[in-house]
Amino acid sequence: MNNIKWKQAYPVVILIAAICLLEFLLSLLAKDSSAFVFWGNASNQSFADLANQSIRNTDNFQWTFIALFAIVVYVLFSEIKNKNFNGVSAALALYGVHWLYEIGNAIIQSTTGYALWTVSPESTSFIILIGVSWELSMMFAIAGLAMSKLLPEDPKMKILGMNNRVFFAILNAAFFSIFEIFLAGTPAFIWTYSWWGAIPVFVTTYIPFFLAAFLIYDAKPETKKRFLLIVWGIVALLLLTLIPLGVI
Predict the structure, then answer these.
(1) Cα–Cα distance measured from residue 61 to residue 134, given in angstroms and rounded to the nearest whole number
(2) What is the residue extent of each domain of the chain?
(3) pTM tops 0.70
(4) How far is CA 111 from CA 2, 20, 115, in A?
(5) Count of CB atoms within 10 A of residue 212's CB?
(6) In the prediction, which pLDDT does 4 show?
(7) Above 60 in pLDDT, residue 2?
(8) Does 6 score more than 90 pLDDT?
(9) pLDDT tens-digit profile of 64-85?
(10) Separation in Å, CA 168 to CA 114, 128, 139, 150
(11) Chain centroid to CA 59: how far?
(12) pLDDT tens digits, 105-153
């Protein structure tokens, strides 16, 4: 039985390793590029310092804040009306896990001085936590729903020897991490640690995001409810505790 489980894990490990190798090779090719940034740099700390002073500051507020929120609400309620509860569950699962990561990132900033990722105040109408702007948050609110549209109807179908839900989770994680390489080359998104970049983002952040979304997509209704209640309960508890205490 254990041998069978290990054999099933081989394609997953190989695919993840291949994507990591590809990103590493690309980082070597683009080491002198300012447009595509694969790793953080301590020289960005001054920009991160400015962002740290702008958390939940309303100086840059724009009406796009309301428009984006209205669009996300419309999308989610349209899916609910169409009884796409699996897609909505995927959206809420990814979004909830995303918030846990953002809270963790904000705690890292408050304890070490710098977060793993930081958004700049010039790029947003509102910084919610140090690593997430309102615009990013609204994107993540429907990312799980949007990407679940790619999933085959058969949850047991295999692609390259692995479950298609796992395959698409890894593929989506790779896409998001590669896109972040471009974002890190703009003034909008800041990495300050030299060991943090595209590869750790891919493995430790985006894979869990999409695994949560796509595995909950097919879960039984009770499992969906239990998972979402636990995740969002923890998110609410942390936000209601840590923000008033000034930790995040």
Answers:
(1) 10
(2) 2-242
(3) yes
(4) 41, 29, 9
(5) 23
(6) 56
(7) no
(8) no
(9) 999 999 999 999 999 999 999 9
(10) 32, 29, 19, 8
(11) 26
(12) 999 999 999 999 999 999 999 999 999 999 999 999 999 999 999 999 9
| 68, 134 Cβ separation under 8 angstroms | yes
The overall average pLDDT reported for the chain is 95
Angle at 167 between CA 161 and CA 168, to 5 degrees: 150
Phi, psi of 115 (to 5 degrees): -80, 165
Residue 92: per-residue pLDDT? 98
Pair 103, 117: CB distance under 8 Å: no
Query: What contacts 100, CB < 8 A, 6 or more positions away?
Result: 231, 234, 235, 238
Integer Cα distance of 209 and 98 in angstroms: 7
How far is residue 193's CA from residue 177's CA, in Å, rounded to a whole number?
16
| Gap between the Cα atoms of 224 and 67, Å rounded | 29
Between the alpha carbon of residue 28 and those of residues 32, 123, 182, the distances in Å are 9, 28, 15
Chain-centroid distance, C-alpha 164: 20
Can you give the chain as a three-state secondary structure string? Answer: CHHHHHHHHHHHHHHHHHHHHHHHHHHHHCCCCCCCCCECCHHHHHHHHHHHCCCCCCCCCCCHHHHHHHHHHHHHHHHHHCCCHHHHHHHHHHHHHHHHHHHHHHHHHHHHCCCCCEECHHHCCCEEECCEEHHHHHHHHHHHHHHHCCCCCCCCCEECCEEHHHHHHHHHHHHHHHHHHHHCCCCCEECCCCCCEHHHHHHHHHHHHHHHHHHHHCCCHHHHHHHHHHHHHHHHHHHHHHCCCCCC
